[in-house]
Amino acid sequence: MYRIGEEEIEEIRRVIVGKKLFRLGDPAAGHQQEVDRFEREWADLIGARYALCLSGGGTAALVSCLAALGIGPGDEVLVPAYTWMATATAALTVGAIPVICEVDETLALDPDDVEHKLTPETRAVLPVHMVGRPANLERLLEIARRNNLKLVEDASQADGGSYKGKRLGSWGDMGAFSFNDFKILSCGEGGALVTDDRILYDRARIFHDSLTSFPTFGQEFAVPTFVGHQYRANEIMGAILRVQLRRLDGILADLRRIGRRMIDALQDAPNLRIAPSNDPDGDCHVVVAFQFDSEEAARRFARCEGVGGGLPIDTGRHVYSNWETVLEHRVGHHPDMNPYHHPKNKGLRTHYSKDMCPRTLDLLSRTVYINLNPDWPDDEVDHRIEACRNAATRL
Ligand SMILES: *Cc1c(COP(=O)(O)O)cnc(C)c1O
Predict the structure, then answer these.
(1) H-helix or E-strand containing 35?
(2) In this predicted model, what pLDDT tens digit does every residue of 149-195 receive, in sequence order?
(3) pTM for the model
(4) In this structure, what DSSP letter does residue 78 have?
(5) Beta-sheet pairing, 309-310 with 367-371
(6) Whose Cα sits closest to atom 2 in ligand 1?
(7) Which residues are catalytic?
(8) Residues within 6 Å of ligand 1 by CB
């Protein structure tokens, strides 16, 4: 969360005073339709036909996307080795098997490894736009189309970012976003999904609220209902998110201004290499990423006075080698509901090891991130630039 304040408080106040906190209600009776309006505004902003807001976060959004697409036992889902573990667990939650793929030097899913790991059982590919950096969607989409795969974007860390001028999340069959406290937009927890497909939207809506609430208020579906989960958003979330959405382009403009200023100042500095990006203009610039020749150099740089850097290899469950529950097949509350025990998943690639993606581990241990803050004044940015230049000179 970058920016939150009086505007959100005012909107929450309005919802509470109105005493209508459930997302569904009759506008004629004073219901404020905050979630409905947020969904309309989010769909418009991302450039998708439909958006669904969920209380269960980006994880619930990913699970609902896969459920909408009918993915389940017998299916493999390709996920990057560098992502928050939820990308992989979402596949398991619907009964499918995540196949872990390398990232390339852009730190996003490597299209070459995707092609290499495809089998006839592969049903979907889940690129993740980590730290706001777009994955290579052009190539991944081409591979997906050619092999009849579904493409679901995990844009949880890239709310509002874009690739080649089109917002992240709008490229694939479906896109998922998170609004938990660590993301570009926040209401504490929560998420959204988008799609252009009416059937997928309806299946996701049914899955996210399988009792489908009150049939009187707009709950008409193009497909039969089925039992799913309960991830309904509430009006307080909707109200906060509508204000957050209005802040988004300002947050991104400031992050990008600061990111570009640092990159322009440092790209020719000795011993410093800016990590390549699939689209520097679409990058949210949550971080500036540097790559070094060795982990030792990366650590020395990150530690230097004033740099304030961190290595992605140290970010716990963002690195597949720390996904113990997945690696050890500990899934679900009951052994018979563990997808690794499902007969249809028997022939699939369920064997993992901590060193199965050496290139990813190597890249993540030679990379340093500097987290940016959109509210840094110019002199703070200049201090960082100086600190980075000095640190690099001493490498
Ligand atoms: C945050 C995040 C999610 C979803 O997290 P929630 O806590 O469920 O909102 C999914 N994928 C990635 C890459 C994330 O960073």
Answers:
(1) helix 34-46
(2) 999 999 999 999 999 999 999 999 999 999 999 999 999 999 999 99
(3) 0.97
(4) E
(5) antiparallel
(6) 156
(7) 183
(8) 57-59, 83-84, 86-87, 128, 154, 156-157, 178, 180, 191
